[in-house]
């Protein structure tokens, strides 16, 4: 059976586990407002509990003092700061959370920690600390605080009281579920706050038990319940009144007699900039033909469109969302109208359709660029690979002949180096057109590389492909290009590959065979056909 001190140490471990889990969960939700501050707060709770836990389990008084009087105070120093920052973020008071203010809030605890870790040299934080061993555990029994201890205590209490006053204001002035959230947070803060008062002012009978650390178990569980039950970080309230005041949509509240009892600035500015809306009949500002009571006779909500002539004579179309307002006892007390200007909707639809057409045209143009070589005005490699793959599948399925010719202009680098790249481009264009004249309409010609061309010959056996290749070779040899010197002879090497049942099962196989044949033609002295 556990003694009271061992039970206390077990609760410290339990507390640190709870707060560490909360810190990790909040960090995963760090994009939510206040999540990082809550993660830091619970992480400091963990440091506080673990400091007391490891101090109790220490093997010497020096080790116990290190954990209890130093590491533990890392959490103690920063818990009030993180708690205040979290509450300010929870309340969306970001005007207070400037970099300057955050720096000032975090600087004082840092100074305190410097004093704590150097306390042995000056005694400003603790003048003396005594430990006693109970049930095999080192527990602090008495201490004499230094002057800085009280400065730190006053600073921490001030931050915690400020944060709790903000929560208390929310409890007494806001709606559920925010009121319940704030109440749970306040309860969670009160437990360690009062426990710390008891320990600091030594109002307990047993000084060996640090009720501050113990109270954080309750604090962690309470705030954890608020976090998971009310989805605290998902429901961080962002000042409901401010939202209504700032949105551009028209918001109007009517009583059962259809009198305007409330309206936001957008409603006033859009519907009647010269006359106060609140207190008047809704039909003074909206078309008389709409009977809002009748529209909601058998439903709770309805959505309609309304044409309005605004100030200055501008006609607009508004989308109206009309809802009944009821008390908790379900009594109908009024109507809520939220209206949004949608007069530009048709223009937006037209713009979207024009954008779609432009995108389709751009897509077609990109496809053309991808499938067409604009220098030689023949197909591109990408287009060839796509078409040739389909043709080979058809040829294999129906056992039809198919051949491929790969060709390369001989010594094309000499042309570029001797006559320039403009002449080289001219040679590519002339060679492409010469090849094209020797092909059928069903044949597929493409520029395969820099000076490489390739031809797919559907329904053509190896013998037919060789005849076509020889005609192309002769046509190139007889080609006359004015920019080339009369003595320069332009030739081309060609490699043939045919679809053979045993060694071709894919386009890559066919290309490899044609490339091997082209290499053989070059090795044989160029200006020839090989297969």
Q: Topology of this protein?
A:
Elements lengths: L3 H25 L6 H22 L4 H30 L8 H19 L1 H4 L3 E9 L2 E9 L1 H27 L4 H23 L10 H19 L10 H7 L3 E6 L4 E4 L1 H7 L20 H4 L5 E9 L5 E12 L5 E10 L3 H27 E2 L4 E2 L1 H18 L3 E8 L2 H8 L1 H17 L6 E4 L4 E7 L3 H16 L14 E7 L8 H17 L5 E2 L1
Parallel strand pairs: 13-14
Antiparallel strand pairs: 1-2, 3-4, 3-7, 5-6, 6-7, 8-9, 10-12, 10-13, 11-12
Helix pairs in contact: 1-2, 1-8, 2-3, 2-8, 3-4, 3-6, 6-7, 7-8, 14-15
Would you give an account of this structure?
The chain is of the alpha+beta class and 531 residues long. It has helices at 4-28, 35-56, 61-90, 99-117, 119-122, 147-173, 178-200, 211-229, 240-246, 265-271, 292-295, 345-371, 381-398, 412-419, 421-437, 462-477, 507-523; strands at residues 126-134, 137-145, 250-255, 260-263, 301-309, 315-326, 332-341, 372-373, 378-379, 402-409, 444-447, 452-458, 492-498, 529-530. The strands form four sheets. It has a five-stranded antiparallel beta sheet with strand order 4-3-7-6-5. A five-stranded mixed beta sheet has the order 11-12-10-13-14, sandwiched between helices. It has a two-stranded antiparallel sheet with strand order 1-2. The protein is flat, with a radius of gyration of 42 Å. Mean pLDDT is 79; it is low at 203-208 and 232-239.
Which regions are unreliable across 5 or more consecutive residues at pLDDT < 50? 203-208, 232-239
Helical content band: 40-55%
- Mean pLDDT equals 79
Global geometry: flat
Mind telling me the C-alpha Rg?
42 Å
Number of helices: 17
Strand content: 15-25%
| DSSP summary, beta strand count | 14
